[in-house]
Amino acid sequence: MSKLKDHYRTLNVINEWDFANLNLFLSYTPEDYGRGSHGARWQVVKARESTDPTAPWYNYGKKTFNVFSYTTGDSHANAKQRALEAAKLWASAKYKIKEWARTPYGSWMESKFVKRRTAELGKPQ
User: How many Å apart are CA 93 and CA 90, to the nearest integer?
Assistant: First the structure.
């Protein structure tokens, strides 16, 4: 764990949900081969709100952008980037977000909020 995330943990900011503080974010979930398996995907997430009311039950109301590399013959990294760009484009249009920034947890949020939130939480001593 990084020093920054260790510092955030002392402030009870444990993950991207805590960092988001009810704001919209893009979250990556790698593929899972367990009983409830799913493919790799980016999801548009907002606490207490469905970002896709018509989503199938297994996406839990979140707008989902699947990472398909096996159908294109492309690398997983390229497919992951394409799916992220599609998620950003969709969320930018729907939620009027102009600029995105990566959070310390690997998720993506509106740039202005990330700057404000990181300033609010401070840096480790």
Answer: 5
